[in-house]
């Protein structure tokens, strides 16, 4: 129906008798023109498509006044009622339409939409099956059924109906992506490849099918086949940016860094440079030991998009790998000025400040890291060690107690709590925690034992 409306609108819009033009002229002059029902449908659908809902409603009311029992106009009215969340009124109208023309599949589609919006997905599915019995072209209902099954987590049934759709229209890429999602969820990657191969038998130069085939081969750990698929995607469409990026990622993964750089650079030329592409190129250069080029691309990535976290963490980690903690901390602080709520920045800041002996700054950063939801043992112990270096024994044992809620079997925490109590002169509490590590203290790392060497004799 929608295709008919679009064709009619294109035809009429080329002259002054176009339905929308005449309708708007009528509104300006306050005269009443006669339109046949199909013209009203065209006008209403045009305003729905352009988001001018008030004009759609005005045209609808006039259309029903002139054609009070026209089914398609009544269905448009129920569609607008659903749009306004007037679901009860829409259902009543749809019941009336069903009495007039029970074989119209659109009735059941719209009823299903109402029940789906109300999260009664099973009722929606039953209505869609009822509509399927009346359907001359079941494609739309298959698609809707598949979506309902996805919502309730029945990916097997969803897969079956998406597959019916794709067999009828191999070029419907949204359906294809949904089908592949279901197959990935079900871990049926061989079936996904069968679907894609069927599409390629029809159109051997379908670059989307080749790209998705490559992704499926990667899931199956068939990297050579994946690389060939990405190459065929590029042969099919040599400006297909996504294929160059996927090929580059795979080349990078298998150690062919120079070839990866070449493909990332082609992608950058095709779609304008992006922070993501610059960081990937920078990472490849870093692995190749091209330090100056790596830094150049890391900084280019930051300039392209200062809010892109991986650009900042990339350059920070680069300097960490070069054991240049001061430079890494410099970029960490700049990153925090842009986004102070990104936990990875705070974690790096904490560890770098601790490494540089800036314990006050490290203590603040460790606390921020925990408050933002990173509860790694490394973070807890880093915070605790920092407090020990600051001689904050009471706060140290408190933080260690909190850490033990996450890591109750971690004996290094018991040792450090005992050490804090020892420093505070609380012998009974110290003895309690020493008992937890007495039999296994020799397994503790030397750097932990060195924090409180005076306790070692008590453990022997």
Structural account:
The protein has helices at 2-12, 19-29, 37-49, 53-66, 71-83, 87-100, 105-117, 121-134, 139-151, 155-168, 173-185, 189-202, 207-219, 223-236, 241-253, 257-271, 275-288, 291-304, 309-321, 325-338, 343-355, 359-371, 377-389, 393-406, 411-423, 427-435, 446-449, 456-459. Helix 5 runs parallel beside helix 7 (105-117), helix 17 packs parallel to helix 19 and helix 22 (359-371) runs antiparallel to helix 23. 76% of the residues lie in helices and 0% in strands. It has 28 helices and no strands. It has a domain at 375-460: Tetratricopeptide repeat domain (Serine Threonine Protein Phosphatase 5, Tetratricopeptide repeat), CATH 1.25.40. With 460 residues, it is mostly helical. Residues 1-16 have low confidence and may be disordered.
Whole-Å distance between the termini? 87 Å
Tell me the total number of β-strands.
0
- Helix content, binned percent: over 70%
Most strands sheet: none
CATH architecture of the domain at 375-460: Alpha Horseshoe
How would the global form be characterised?
elongated
């Amino acid at each position: 129906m929608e295709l008919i409306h679009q064709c009619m609108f294109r035809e009429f819009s080329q002259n002054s008798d176009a339905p929308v033009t005449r309708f708007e002229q009528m509104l300006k002059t306050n005269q009443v023109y006669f339109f046949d029902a199909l013209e009203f449908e065209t006008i209403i659908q045009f305003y729905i498509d352009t988001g001018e809902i008030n004009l759609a409603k005005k045209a609808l009311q006039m259309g029903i006044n002139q054609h009070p029992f026209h089914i398609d106009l009544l269905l448009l009215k129920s569609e607008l009622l659903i749009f306004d969340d007037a679901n009860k009124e829409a259902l009543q109208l749809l019941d009336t339409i069903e009495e007039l023309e029970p074989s119209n599949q659109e009735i059941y589609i719209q009823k299903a939409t109402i029940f789906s919006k109300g999260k009664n997905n099973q009722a929606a599915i039953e209505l869609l099956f009822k509509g399927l019995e009346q359907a001359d072209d079941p494609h739309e209902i298959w698609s809707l059924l598949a979506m309902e099954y996805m919502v309730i987590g029945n990916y097997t049934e969803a897969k079956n109906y998406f597959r019916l759709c794709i067999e009828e229209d191999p070029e419907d890429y949204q359906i294809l992506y949904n089908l592949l999602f279901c197959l990935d969820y079900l871990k049926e990657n061989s079936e996904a490849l069968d679907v894609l191969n069927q599409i390629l038998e029809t159109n051997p130069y379908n670059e989307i099918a080749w790209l998705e085939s490559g992704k499926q081969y990667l899931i199956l750990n068939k990297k050579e086949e994946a690389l060939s698929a990405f190459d065929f995607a590029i042969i099919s469409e040599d400006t297909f940016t996504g294929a160059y990026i996927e090929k580059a990622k795979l080349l990078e993964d298998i150690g062919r860094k120079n070839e990866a750089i070449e493909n990332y650079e082609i992608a950058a030329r095709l779609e304008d440079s992006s922070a993501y592409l610059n960081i990937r190129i920078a990472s490849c250069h870093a692995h190749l030991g091209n330090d100056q080029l790596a830094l150049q691309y890391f900084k280019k990535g930051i300039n392209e998009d200062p809010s892109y976290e991986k650009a900042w963490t990339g350059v920070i980690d680069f300097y960490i790998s070069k054991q240049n903690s001061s430079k890494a901390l410099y970029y960490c602080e700049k990153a925090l000025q842009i986004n102070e709520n990104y936990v990875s920045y705070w974690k790096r800041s904490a560890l770098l400040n601790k490494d540089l002996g800036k314990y006050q700054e490290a203590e603040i950063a460790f606390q921020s890291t925990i408050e933002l939801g990173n509860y790694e043992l490394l973070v807890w112990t880093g915070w605790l060690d920092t407090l020990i270096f600051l001689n904050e024994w009471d706060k140290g044992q408190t933080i260690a107690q909190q850490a033990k809620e996450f890591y109750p079997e971690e004996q290094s925490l018991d040792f450090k709590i005992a050490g804090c109590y020892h420093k505070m002169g609380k012998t009974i509490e110290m003895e309690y925690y020493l008992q937890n590590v007495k039999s296994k203290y020799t397994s503790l790392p030397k750097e932990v034992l060195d924090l409180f060497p005076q306790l070692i004799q008590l453990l022997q």
